[in-house]
Amino acid sequence: MKNIKLIEVPSEIGAGTRGASLGVDAIKIAALDFMSNFFVHFPSEKIPTENHLLFEPIASPYAKRIKGICTMYEKVSKAVRETIKSNFFPIVLSGDHSISGATIAGIKMAKPASKLGVIWIDAHADLHTPYTTPSGNMHGMPLATALAEDNMENGDRRLDKETEKIWNHLKNLGGITPKILGEDLVYISLRDYEREEKAVIEKHGIKVITSSEVRRKGPENIVRSVIRYLSDCTDIYISFDVDCLDSSITKGTGTPVSNGLREREAEDLVSKFMQNHKICCFEITEVNPTLDKENLMAEIAFNILQRSVNVLLVN
Fold this sequence. Notes:
Layout: E1 4-9, H1 23-33, H2 38-41, E2 44-46, H3 66-85, E3 89-94, H4 99-110, E4 116-121, H5 142-147, H6 161-172, E5 185-188, H7 195-204, E6 207-209, H8 211-217, H9 219-229, E7 235-241, H10 263-273, E8 279-285, H11 296-314
Parallel strand pairs: 1-2, 1-3, 3-8, 4-5, 4-7, 5-6, 7-8
């Protein structure tokens, strides 16, 4: 049985669509609607955000609000590091996916000698850099910071010195770079990415498992094969972006994509992964209740969260 700590990060400065900062509270409301006292059970820490930057002019068009992202990286990585050092299992509830780069940094800072595996359950690759980004939104870049990947050969953006300096700081946070290797990263349900990201996937030989493969082989077989694939890793982090689910059920997220996972498939996948003793951290991200009806996305996220935690408590 693990001691669990919730780290709440209602930050949305990395996203392109507004509203993800309300995702954490939406998941709490879903818990109340299900008459669950889940959020009373566990200690939690709420990380102060930089969301005021949403009302200020954008200084870095190719890495929007990167100064605020840097501040969030510092705060979140510290919280994750201290949580692990105190022998708690961190469950991170974040607004947008940019925070995952900080979560990875925090795990590595707590366990610098560990070979960290990452299971990225997401419709998107999140491998852009300020040199390749089509949007400048930093929730599309967390894995590039973890891999310390600039991908300049596929990008033509020219950065100002300040942006370049902060980007380099994000990659080197904690004095560990890269934080993960491509061989230790697995995508599940990936289906919407640009050619610049495809180049990084091919360069690093990153494993990709599609939604149809999950459907064909079944969650249990997928989990078994992924754990086997990451067998050299000493620790494994799972990042769950709700847009991995099919767009028919993911109105409540900023970037829904068709041909995704069904709710039950996602639930089975995550809960079966959580049975493995190497899993050291779990994150749910990108719930946006302003795009939703009847808080459906948050309810699905809460179901996945609750089932996953139940597995941790009995293991």
